[in-house]
Amino acid sequence: MLEAAAGGLMTGALYALLASGFALVLSVARTFNLAHGELIVLGGYVGEYLWRTAGLSPVLAMPFAALPCGALALASRPVLRRVGEPFVLRALVLTFGLSLILQGALQDAFSADHRLIAVPAWEAGVRLLGVRLPAGRLIVAAVSTGLLLGLYLVWTRTFLGKSLRAVSQDREAACLAGISPARVDGIALALGGVLAGASGPLFAAVHTVSPAAGLGPATIAIVLTILAGIGHMGWLLIGGLMLGLAEAMAGWFGGAMWRDLLPLGLLIGLLRWRGGILVSGQDRP
Amino acid sequence: MNTPHPPRPLDAGMRLVGPGAGGLALVAILPLALGLQDHLVYLATMAALLALLAQSWNLPAQAGLISFGHAAFFGVGAYASALLSLRAHASPWLGLLVAAGAAALVGWLAARIAGDLPGPAFSLATLALAEGLRVIALHWTGLTEGAWGLVGIPGLPWPALTGAWSPRGARILDYYAAAASVWVLCLILAWIRRRPFGLALEAIRQAEGRAEALGVNTRQVKRAALILSAAFAGVAGGLHAHLFRWVDPASVFGVHHSVVPLIMAMFGGTGTLLGPVAGAAALYLANELVFHRLAPGAHLWLYGAAIVVVVVALPRGIFGYLQARLERRHEPV
C-alpha cells in the first residue's frame, strides 16, 4: 500500500504538469482549451518517434515535443480572436472542433495504434525510504516537479509573470498599466502549448498514447484547474499530488473502476461547487 | 420582450398537418427514389438514426444547454434494449420503449446534477457523466460483459418476408423504423415551438435571469427538455443496438456519440427546426461518400472543420443562415 501511495504521489506530480498549460491559458486568455489533451498526445508521439528512431530519452525529447505544440497553439490564435459572444462557451465548442482536427491529423500521421515509450533502463527499481520505486516514474516525477517550480518562479518573480498575472486578474487595469492583453494572451497560449507538448513525452513514458487518448489528461487538467482556481499556479502541484494519491488509494481499495471514476466524479462535484469561475471571464472583448 | 401571441393549440396543430404529411410522404418514398439499393437504403437508415440523435440534442440546446454527453443517453438506451432482448428475451419493440424510459431516467439525473450549472460547466458535467457511464459499463462485467460487449442482439422483429424480399425487405423496414422516429420527433418539436414550453426554452436561451423574473420555472423547463431529449436519444441508441446487433462500451458510450449530434445539429443550425436533420444528413453522407475514402482520420477533419466554420463564421448554422437570407429578401426595403 505504501508503494501504491508513493506511486500515486509520483503520478500526481505529472498530473500537475499536464494541467499547468491548461490552467495558464484559462487563467490568462480565458480560453477553455479542450484541445489541450490532444497537444499532450502530440508531444507524446513526437517523443515516441524520437525514442524509436534516434534512441533519444523522453526527458531530452521534451524540447522537440514542446516546439510544434507551442507553434500550433499560437496558430489557433487568429481563429480564437474571431469567436463571438458568449465567448467562453463558444471557445469551448471551437477548441472541441480543433481537438477533432488534431485527432484526425494524429490518426493519419501515426495510425490508430497505442504507443508507449518503454525505456529499459527506467524499469530498474530504486529503494527509497524502504519503498521500492521504478526509476522511470521517479525521473518523470522529478522532472515534472522541477519544471513546475520553474514555471512558478516565472509566474511570481519575473516581469513576464507579472504581466501574465495582471491580465489574469483584471484586463482593463492591465491595459492602464501599459500591458497589451492581446499580446499577453498570445504569450499565454504559446506557453500553454509548450507546456502541453513538453509534458507529452513524460506522459507517453508512463501511459500509452493513441489519437483518442487526449480526453484523459484533459479531464485531469480541468479537474486540477478548477480545484486550484483561476490564477493560482502554485496550488496545481498540491492538487495534483492529492489527486494522484486519491486515485492510487481508490485503485488500491476499490479497483480499476473506482480509480477511473474518481476524477470524473470529482469533476462533477467541483463544477457544482465552483463551476462559476469558468464563466467569470465572460466580459472578454 | 415582444413575443408573438401564442396561437390556440388547435391552430398550431392544424398548421402542422400539411408539412407533417409532406414529410411523411418524403420518408415513405425515399427507398423507392433510391431504387431500393441495399447500400443506399443502409446509408439512409444511418442518416436517419444520426438525425434522430442530432434532433434530440437540439431540444435542450434551444435553451442554451450545450450537451457534451449525449452518448450517456444513447449508450444507456442501447444497453437497456440489448440487455432486455438478450437476457429477458423481450421483444425489441418493448426494448425500445424501455430504452426511452431508461435514458429519460439518466436525463433526469443529468438535469439533477448539471441542469442549473452555467453554460460551460453544464457541458463539462455532461461530458463527465457520459465518461463515467462508459467506465461503469466497461468494468461491470457481470451485466455488460465489459469490453467484449454484447453480441447476438436480435434485429427488429419484422413479419417474415419470403423469397427475394427476405433480407432486403427487412432492411427497408429498418429504415422506416428509424425515419419514422425522426418524423415523430420533428412533429413534437414543431408542435412545442409555439407553445408556452417552446417559448420558455427560447426565453431561457436569450436571458435566463429575465425569464425567471417573468415567472418561467427555468429549472423545470430545462429538466423537461433534458428528459424528453434523453428519451429520444435513448431510442436512437436502442435502434443502433438492434441494427448493428452488438454494443460495447467504447462504441455506444464513446465520445463519438456525444460529438456527432453536437456537430451535426450546430452545423445545420441549432435554432431551426429542420437544421439538425439536414446537418446530420449532409455531414454523414459527405463523410460516407467522399471523406471516408480519403484517409482513416478524414471524418475527424470533416467534423472538426465543420464546427470551426460554424463557430467562427456561421453562428446560426447552414439552415439558419439560409433562413435569414430568405427572410431578408422578402422584407420591404
Q: How many DSSP H or I helices of chain A?
A: 12
Number of strands of chain A: 2
Helix-strand pattern of chain B, N to C?
A: HHHHHHEHHHHEHHHHH
pLDDT < 50 runs, ≥5 residues of chain B: none
Shape of chain A: globular
Count interface residues per chain for the largest interface.
Answer: A-B, 47 and 43 residues
Could you explain how this protein is built, in words?
The complex is a heterodimer of chains A (285) and B (333). In chain A, α1 packs parallel to α6 and α2 crosses α9. Chain A is mainly alpha-helical and 285 residues long. In chain A, strands 1-2 form a two-stranded antiparallel sheet. Chain A has one domain (2-107, 132-278): Orthogonal Bundle (ABC transporter involved in vitamin B12 uptake, BtuC), CATH 1.10.3470. Chain A is 75% helix and 3% strand. Residues 281-285 of chain A have low confidence and may be disordered. Chain A is built from twelve helices and two strands; from the N terminus they run αααααββααααααα. With 333 residues, chain B is mostly helical. Chain B has one domain (9-254). Chain B has helices at residues 9-33, 38-61, 71-87, 92-114, 119-139, 141-144, 166-193, 196-206, 208-213, 218-244, 249-252, 256-268, 275-289, 298-312, 317-330; strands at residues 150-151, 246-247. A two-stranded antiparallel ribbon of chain B has the order 1-2. Chain B is globular, with a radius of gyration of 20 Å. Classes of the chains: A mainly alpha (285), B mainly alpha (333). The A-B interface holds A 32, 79, 82-84, 86, 88-90, 92-94, 96-108, 111-112, 211-212, 215, 219, 222, 255-257, 260-261, 264-265, 267-268, 271-272, 275-276, 278-279 and B 66, 68, 113-114, 117-121, 123-125, 128-129, 131-132, 135-136, 138-140, 255, 259, 262-263, 266, 295-301, 303-308, 311-313, 315.
